[in-house]
Amino acid sequence: MRTVIVGAGIAGLVCADALARRGEDVEVYEATSRAGGRFETASVADCRVEVGANFLSSTYRVLPRLAKRLGVPLRPIRSRAGIITDSAVMAYKPNGPAMVRAGVVGWRDAARAGWAMAGQVRRLARADPADPAQWADIDVPAVAWCAERFGRAFTDAVIGSA
């Protein structure tokens, strides 16, 4: 059987791999000039920066096994963050007080974002992962979602504007 997969992001590529290992004839089509979807590395201010969904946490089960099978080395990273502003990299811990001390956001914006994040965590903790209707309000571009909940100043400082 011939199977066509539209999209060469991680989900499409994992699907293609699984089908090919079962002996299926698989073709993958991608609209952009590269495979990988949201996994991407960019060069910013002479630094290599991961700009997409490029990390695996200890909760992931499928991708680490896939990486091992394909011989892709994984390495632990430190949980440090940085903000690039005016072509300079500024290291900081991604929490409210550190972001304020680093000048990334003001106290008022950090407090608003913290309050909103706590509300989101409480709401999403009660949501049924199997019911897509309960997640519909977060199925929007990240910048718009963040700006609506956490404020424009926080969003511009942490995510960037779009």
Automatic annotation (TrEMBL):
Limits of the Amine oxidase domain: 10-127
Molecular functions (GO terms): oxidoreductase activity
Domain of life: Bacteria
Name by which UniProt lists this protein: NAD(P)-binding protein
Organism: Schaalia georgiae
